[in-house]
Design goal:
The chain has 414 residues and is an alpha/beta fold. The protein contains 14 helices and 17 strands. The model has no long low-confidence stretch (mean pLDDT 96). The structure holds ligand 7TS.
Amino acid sequence: MNQLVRDIPTVDFGKIRADFPVLNQKVNGEPLVYLDNAASSQMPAQVADRIDRYHRHEHANVHRGIHTLSQKATDEFEATRRKVRDFINAESENEIVYTTGTTDSINLVANSYGLTNFKKGDEIILSEMEHHANIVPWQMIAKRTGAVIRVIPITDAGDLDMEAYKSLLGPKTKMVAIVHISNALGTINPVKEITDLAHEHGAKVLIDGAQSVPHQVVDVQKIGCDFFTFSAHKMCGPTGFGILYGKASLLEEMPPYRGGGDMIDKVSFEETTYNVPPFRFEAGTPPIAAGIGLGSAIDYLNEIGMKQIAQREAELVNYAVKRLKDIDGLKMVGDSADRASVCSFLLDGIHATDAGTILDKRGIAVRTGHHCAQPIMQRYGIPGTARASIAFYNNTEDIDRLVDGIHYVKSFFE
Ligand code: 7TS
């Protein structure tokens, strides 16, 4: 719980829950307990209303209209870039590339930076706890360039083996791509230390922040990473939108990933020249409403305060881990001392999917399976887990309902 902050203004999280109309419903006859926030978080009414207002009253295409409506849409859409810059403390808004999500952001770096810079025998370091989105794009590029993937093992508790990482680093290392917070285990990785070590060897660093940006204060300059990726839909925003942060000096060198409108300077059949970053990487009409929605989500999170959110969630996660560990026959999968949001577990003799199905019948939404992180499941020799993932709008009653539900699941199989 490294983000446990004391002496910060308190927030009435009971009231905040009322911002989320989706939580106020029955599922299978029971009040919904939503504990699948790592897959996608819920959207507060303020953000939904902002997107609705755009569609009803403000819609026009961006970056191309001389007319007022288009200029207003462009201003709103571009305002998000500055909000993101401040939210993650990037140096410049030109370092903020709009994408469709974390997966798209990583594919962009792999295809643009990777294809241009990797050659046969170069090494890409990943870890055993990566989401498929931070494995498969690198494998695809490794196949095309002859680069080789090396993997940092993890300990039984679910922490990166940092000594093994140090021994993997060397002159051939060109890229270290690591998850900030694991979606399968909840482990918070020491990304600054990882980045500093990689830089000592001249390697670039990409941090997959899909699960960190929604839960804690992120400062990309403090981390020092070269690239950082995340998705709007995991931080109270809409689907179909995400961010690639890239250091300006790197983005400037990188060729475009997709071609089309907006990403060009001049086009002729003889020669086409490209726009400057970030626009060079944003071909075609973007998801405008979703971009404005992310801006609104950032406003919403800022109003509560990311420090307050981190503290609230740390308290809830502490409570959940303690209560879960008290259940006979329950085993936590991933038990790092430094964790956020995610509680993955297995019940003795009960398949995770069966547990999830029975919990759903009681209105409790958890995710079961491999969580798009099959290598970490292979590491533990299991097909998958049941995963409760917590957001700031959850409360201790949600966790109590989960614990009661698990006791019910157990009784069902006795
Ligand atoms: N990286 C991490 C760490 C993730 O948790 C996810 C999504 C992604 C990348 C991909 O994000 P996307 O928005 O591009 O899809 N994780 C999950 C999950 O845990 N359950 O559903 C999606």
